[in-house]
């Protein structure tokens, strides 16, 4: 490319409509007008960046070479004039850099809440809003933590607890802890290496990672970063185009993924208002021009913008089709009722995750922990328990080994952790995830010793008192560590706010 292919920012800015849409990604200018309607995330999201540098928005969501390898060469218009990308740092960027430099040393992290506090400082406002937000009043988000405070231990004594082993198998795969890394989308919003931070740390510590459909890194990048004996699971959002889903699932199986977690609680993405509000802030005046031309709504937030491909027609009748395209164990992620748990068992899947999606979907849904008690009782009426062919997992609000031990005592096979690891790598990259796993491992060892359990097999329902689990109203002690980082909705900033 000769010097003539340098394109000034002002020229790119003139192509900011559906009729002519140019964007800058990694300093290159692309004409994506003809591609707008083919974009899996919809054209609206691209039009937000029409005529502008879209790198920051593109990067967390797409594999690096996606645009350059998918657009025909004649649509690679040229190189953005340096002034287009070398804008001065915003006040938020400067503040973030400073906070990153002033992070406490990793050794000062004593629990998973500490990572959340650091992440809150170092994440961009948009990333924090996307990661921390939950649906509507965020009742379910808070309940996920509160439920654990209503279950108490009844430890056993004098059992020679010299050596403790918290290892287990999850869906036939070895795991050093009864915890797996649950799928959380868009890892690069938190750290340039995104999900690879999790993959590498999980390999080192023998923990299983669930790869999200909406990962920032490509599926293959993640698998390529894994070690030969490392077990990976796959989280699936089912596409309206079943051929796309089939290809994706079969590719994953070929690459050695060990289980398929189909997300069943997200036929539409929940209304996460912090996330929606942040989008409004960032669009600023520029969005007004585009809005007139394309009908963009400014209130979608990241989550909704990227999820338009998800098929809301997914139903029980589709389960045999999934069975026909893969021999991986199939687990339904996002089950809440005993009726559905029994239907899942009868449908022949290998397990369920009792989850309210970290409070991000249907607000006011009960916690997985509370549902666990009813669901285990229901499953006991349908055959042997524990059932070696049907695993019950739970997630939501797990931040301590003690949380996991309570869930296991009540019948869970293992528990998923989402935000805990997400915040760990947002704050400290791979080192953060490693430290988080070490903290959990130490917590398991101590809690199991004090409970009188040498192995997880020795945990039993009579080691917990769950009689208060159904008590919801105001009787729970304040969790001040968690409350210190919880961000009330009213403090979320809107564009004109001076808060
Ligand atoms: C930022 C974020 C993104 C998530 N993305 C997905 C996703 O793409 N697919 C999915 O099935 N669950 C997703 N989840 C839900 C998690 O898998 C898990 O159910 C939840 O985070 C557990 O709650 P916790 O964050 O309190 O541990 C996401 C959660 C968060 C916080």
UniProtKB/TrEMBL annotation:
* Cellular component terms (Gene Ontology): mitochondrial intermembrane space
Domain of life of the organism encoding this protein: Eukaryota
Pfam families from the entry?
A: Cyt-b5, FMN_dh
Domain annotation Cytochrome b5 heme-binding: ranges: 4-81
CDD domains recorded: FCB2_FMN
Sorted alphabetically, which Gene3D superfamilies does this protein's record hold? Aldolase class I (3.20.20.70), Cytochrome b5-like heme/steroid binding domain (3.10.120.10)
What's its EC?
1.1.2.3
Location in the cell: Mitochondrion intermembrane space
What does it catalyze? (S)-lactate + 2 Fe(III)-[cytochrome c] = 2 Fe(II)-[cytochrome c] + pyruvate + 2 H(+)
Query: Which residue ranges are recorded for the region named Disordered?
Result: 75-94
* Names of required cofactors: heme b; FMN
Q: Name one GO biological process term.
A: lactate metabolic process
Domain FMN hydroxy acid dehydrogenase per the UniProt entry, residue ranges: 104-469
Q: Which UniProt keywords apply?
A: Flavoprotein, FMN, Heme, Iron, Metal-binding, Mitochondrion, Oxidoreductase, Transit peptide, Transport
What PANTHER family does the record point to? L-LACTATE DEHYDROGENASE (CYTOCHROME), S -2-HYDROXY-ACID OXIDASE-RELATED
Describe the protein's quaternary organization and the partners it interacts with: Homotetramer.
The identity of this protein, by name, is L-lactate dehydrogenase (cytochrome)
> Lineage of the source organism?
Eukaryota, Fungi, Dikarya, Basidiomycota, Agaricomycotina
């Amino acid at each position: 490319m000769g010097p003539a292919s340098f394109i000034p920012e002002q020229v790119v800015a003139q192509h900011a409509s559906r009729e002519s849409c140019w964007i800058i990604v990694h300093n290159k200018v692309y004409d994506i007008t003809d591609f707008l309607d083919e974009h899996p995330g919809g054209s609206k999201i691209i039009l937000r960046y029409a005529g502008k540098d879209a790198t920051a928005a593109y990067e967390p969501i797409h594999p690096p070479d996606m645009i350059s390898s998918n657009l025909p060469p004649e649509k690679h218009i040229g190189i953005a004039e340096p002034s287009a990308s070398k804008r001065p740092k915003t006040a938020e960027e400067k503040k973030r850099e400073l906070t990153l430099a002033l992070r406490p040393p990793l050794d000062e992290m004593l629990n998973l809440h500490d990572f959340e506090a650091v992440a809150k400082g170092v994440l961009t406002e948009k990333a924090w809003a996307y990661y921390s937000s939950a649906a509507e009043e965020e009742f379910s988000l808070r309940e996920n933590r509160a439920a654990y405070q209503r279950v108490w231990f009844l430890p056993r004594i004098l059992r020679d607890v010299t050596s403790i082993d918290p290892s287990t198998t999850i869906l036939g795969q070895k795991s050093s802890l009864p915890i797996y890394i649950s799928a959380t989308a868009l890892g690069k919003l938190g750290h340039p290496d995104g999900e690879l931070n999790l993959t590498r740390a999980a390999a080192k510590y023998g923990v299983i990672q669930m790869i999200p459909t909406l990962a920032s890194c490509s599926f293959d990048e993640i698998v390529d970063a894994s070690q030969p004996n490392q077990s990976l699971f796959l989280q699936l959002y089912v596409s309206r185009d079943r051929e796309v889903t089939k290809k994706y699932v079969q590719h994953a199986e070929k690459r050695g993924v060990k289980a398929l977690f189909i997300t069943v609680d997200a036929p539409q993405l929940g209304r996460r208002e912090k996330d929606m509000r942040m989008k409004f802030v960032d669009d600023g005046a520029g969005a007004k021009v585009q809005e007139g031309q394309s009908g963009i709504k400014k209130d979608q937030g990241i989550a909704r913008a990227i999820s338009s491909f998800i098929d809301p027609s997914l139903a029980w009748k589709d389960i045999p089709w999934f069975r026909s395209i893969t021999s991986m164990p199939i687990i339904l992620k996002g089950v809440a009722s005993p009726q559905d748990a029994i239907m899942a068992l009868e449908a022949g899947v290998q397990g369920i995750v009792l989850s309210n999606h970290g409070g991000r979907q249907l607000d006011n849904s009960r916690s997985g922990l509370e549902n666990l008690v009813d669901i285990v009782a229901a499953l006991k009426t349908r055959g042997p328990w524990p059932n070696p062919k049907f695993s019950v997992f739970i997630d939501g609000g797990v931040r301590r080994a003690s949380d996991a031990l309570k869930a296991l005592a009540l019948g869970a096979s293992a528990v998923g952790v989402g935000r805990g690891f997400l915040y760990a790598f947002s704050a400290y990259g791979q080192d953060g995830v490693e430290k988080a796993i070490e903290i959990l491992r130490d917590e398991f060892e101590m809690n199991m010793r004090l409970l009188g359990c040498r192995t997880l097999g020795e945990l039993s329902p009579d080691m917990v008192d769950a009689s208060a689990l159904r008590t919801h109203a105001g009787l729970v002690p304040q969790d001040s560590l968690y409350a210190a980082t919880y961000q009330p909705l009213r403090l979320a900033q809107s564009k004109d706010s001076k808060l």
